[in-house]
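[09:14] KT: can someone run the structure on this one? pasting the chain below
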Amino acid sequence: MPLSLAVGLISAVAAFAAGYLVHRMLVIREARGAATQAERILAEARREAETARKEAVLEGREQISRERAQAMEDLQKRRSELDRKESDLSRRSEYLDRAREKLERRETSLEVQETSMAEREQALIAKQQRVTKIMEEQNRLLEQIAGLSRDEARSQLISNLEEEARLEAGRIQRRILEEAERTADEEATRILSTAVQRCSAIHVVENCVSVVQLPGEEMKGRIIGREGRNIRAFETATGVDVIIDDTPEAIVLSCFDPVRREVARQSMEKLISDGRIHPGRIESVVSRIESEMEKNIMKLGGELCMEANVSGVHPQLVRFLGRLRYRSSYGQNMFQHSLEVAHICGLLAAELKLDSTIARRAGLLHDIGKATDQESEGSHALVGMEMARKFDETPLICNAIGAHHEEVEPESLFAVLVQAADSVSGARPGARRETLELYVKRLQKLETIADSFDGVSKSYAIQAGREVRIAVKPEAVDDSGAADLARLVARRIESEVEYPGQIKVTVIREVRASETAR
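[09:31] RB: done, structure tokens below
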């Protein structure tokens, strides 16, 4: 037993020693391989480092070469720039030299001129002294010849001038009185016609009535109602007269207020389309239409301001502008007339280099007084001026509104532009209700009346018949006769011609003298 244990132990030791020797040999072999590989890697690293060094040297040389070439190029450019600047400086120096020489020559010339002017001034002073002496001698001779001293002659001259001034003032006063006599009737007619327009009085049927078409004759009975209760309720609610006659399938609404008449028309059309017509329904529909009409009027006023390119208008003035949609003058709608006047004012202001915005605003608001009812006292121009002042319009705009019919004195060119634009819009053919045939006949009648007087050479009706210009023969009509002829023609036109507004009669007397130089 101990023997076997010793043998096993020896065997184990021998096996361990053999394993150790084998392991040692393997470690030595791996160490040798690692050393060989390390030497190889080191050699490769040395070769790569040498290659990198060479490449770096070459790259550095190339970089140095490029920088040297760039430096040479920059140096060449700087030399060229310096050469160019040197050339510019040389040219400027030459130019300054020439300018200095020119200034020296001009200074010399000015010195010569100054000397010459001084000599001329001395000569003029001498001449003035001689003229003064001559005038004094002549005055003494005139005093001796006339037997009057200088003060006496001055007093007599002043007296003569005062007498001439008194005579001229008398002639002017007489001419003003004659002009007032000629225009008094025309002005009264204009004021009356304007008042009639503002009161919406019946002067044409279309301005005071509206026709409502019916779907059938039986609708007339439903509108009248039992014992006339429907028609009475409608007239009470709207304030218009309902005229039901033998006209087939139509009724007529009559009222002097165009806004109330429009409310009644829309209400009647609504009732007819709905079919329910009784007093309660009538009051409900009329109330709703009145509310919608007020909104529509504000909308129309806003659209008018937008089309005229006018902003910042007070809401109450916008409301009155919307009411102009239902106003007319001589058949011309005031809504369209105000827009047209605004555009014309803007164009005229642009031509005269004035503020077109102010001109358009004044033109748009010039007839705002016509949107009020007849309870407002005064002409529409003055009422409109007060309205504009009340709603914070500028004094310039207020004056233009009040002066467009010359009821107040114009204070600016804008007031004159509004007058001109208003005349152009109202006077052009077709603006107001007048057929072309009647328009032509009226112009012919005006010229015929003017030609019927003795001494008339030519006559022309201009400005759409608002002015008649008459050229007279100077040998047949003198200056006082020209004034008499203008008055006679105006009276004749008043008695024989029907026309809106005023007609101005202008007589032109011209004397020409000519001679031929041979």
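[09:33] KT: thanks! The CA atoms of residues 143 and 153 lie 9 Å apart.
[09:34] RB: yep, looked fine to me
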